[in-house]
Specification:
By secondary structure, the chain is an all-beta fold. The chain has no helices and 17 strands.
């Protein structure tokens, strides 16, 4: 394969793009993938790396390229972290954005990378070094990952208001639902209380007074955070 080098400033508030893979698939692929196998090997040039938080997502494009140098992939979230001065999320292929369509974990129409999985923490392998001072982090495979929550946001895209429905099949306890901008600023706190396993809950997000764009809903309990995208079009 081809090595993918990500260059971005340290200590940003959002996500970094680590690696990606393009693959030709039938146009009938469904959204909300659950049965998936994803494998990664992580490296860092900074000594003392003890853990890595990573997430995966998937989006569908009607036209794409296997030549990584032509994609123009944005390396990090934010409008000042890279020379792409926009609020597109990390991993957006800036040169192919016009071709995004709904499918896999993406909604199309401005959703360039799809909905992230929850964050997953990985620790380094012990005393494994290569390429000089590089530290190799554990190689991991996820199979058939199942979310702690069943979430549905509708309508999405939306023009003024949208409803977020959520349910946890097994978890009971404190849960929060919040909405953030792509720069990491909290826009709204929609729910902060206890839930019961198997019970359905819904909250409304009123976006009449904020500009259009992509926003992130965040559903969190004591052990996991689920993020999803809300596309506001006025």
């Amino acid at each position: 394969g081809t090595e993918w080098l990500t260059v971005a400033p340290p200590n940003i508030a959002g996500n970094y793009f680590i690696s990606g893979y393009s693959h030709l698939l039938p146009s009938t692929i469904l959204r909300n993938l659950s049965a998936i196998t994803w494998k990664g090997v992580w490296t860092s040039s900074k000594p003392g790396v003890t853990s890595l938080q990573w997430k995966w997502s998937a989006a569908v494009y009607s036209t794409f390229s296997t030549d990584l140098t032509t994609l123009g992939v944005k390396a990090a979230d934010g409008d000042t972290t890279t020379f792409y001065t926009n609020n597109d999320p990390a991993g957006s292929p800036e040169n192919f954005k016009l071709y995004v369509i709904a499918g896999a974990r993406g909604l199309g129409n401005g959703d360039y990378v799809g909905t992230y999985s929850g964050p997953i923490s990985r620790i380094p392998c012990t005393n494994v070094n290569f390429g000089g001072s590089l530290v190799r982090l554990a190689e991991e495979t996820l199979e058939n990952e199942i979310s702690d929550f069943v979430v549905n946001a509708y309508p999405n895209p939306f023009s003024s208001k949208t409803t977020i429905e959520f349910m946890s099949p097994e978890y009971s306890g404190m849960t929060s639902v919040e909405v953030y901008s792509m720069s990491g600023s909290k826009i709204a706190s929609l729910y902060n209380g206890t839930i019961e396993a198997g019970a359905n809950y819904s909250v409304e997000f009123n976006a009449e007074d904020i500009p259009d764009g992509i926003y992130i809903y965040r559903i969190a309990n004591n052990s996991k955070v689920i993020n999803g995208r809300l596309i506001l079009v006025k």
